[in-house]
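A note from the maintainers: we've had questions about how concatenated examples are separated. There is no special marker in the raw files; a new sequence line simply starts the next protein. For clarity in this README we add a label.
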Amino acid sequence: MGDSLCLQAWTSVSGNNSTLVQDASDWLDVSHAQDLAIYAEIGWIQSQASTTLLDIQASPTKDAAFFTSSLTAAGVAPYLARYSFALTPTLGMQTLAIVRFATVTASPPSCYLRWAITFPNVATGTNLTFRIWINANRGGY
C-alpha cells in the first residue's frame, strides 16, 4: 500500500519572467519509495498569457545543484515531472507523472523532491494557487 505525502500544502505564488523554487526546508524525502505518482491540484491561475511551467525535480542529496545541473549535464531532462499550463488552464487535480523504478525513461525517483515554477514574461505577471500530492510505493513490494 502506498503512502500519501504532501509535497506542498495549498499555497499562492506569483511571478513574472522568473523561476520560483520551493524552500529547502520543505523538500520531501522519498528515499523509501521505488514508485511515485505525482499529482498537482490547481485551485486558481490568473493572467495566463503564455506558458507557465510547474516542474517536480529530484536529487539524491539536499544540495540545490543536484536538482538540475547534474541531470542536464548527463543529457537528461532536469525534472522528474512537468506540467505546462495551457492558455486556458484546467483547474482541479492534474496527474503529472507516474514514475516506476523499473521502467523510468527520464529522471529516476531519487531521495528528495521539490517543485519549481517558471513564470512567463507577461505584462501583469501570473498568479497561481496549487498544492502537490505524492503517492509513494515502498520498495520491496
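[label: protein 2]
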Amino acid sequence: MQTHKMSVSIPEPLYDFLASYQQAHHYKSRSEVITKALRLLQQIQLEGLYCEANEELEDDFDSVAGDGLENETW
C-alpha cells in the first residue's frame, strides 16, 4: 500500500489523547492511530450511505409491493 506523508496541526488535548491512546493500545506510531481513526470515520460515512440507499430501496419497494394484488387473497 502506498503511503503519503503529511503534516497536521491539532489542539494539545487531542495530541495528548493521541499519545496516550498509542501507548495504551501498543501502536508503533501516531500515524497508525490516525489511520485507525480515519478508517472508523470512513466506516461511519459508509454506514450512513448504506442506510440512505436502503431507505430508497424500501420506498421503491413499498410503492410497487401491492401492484396487481389488490383483489388477491392468499
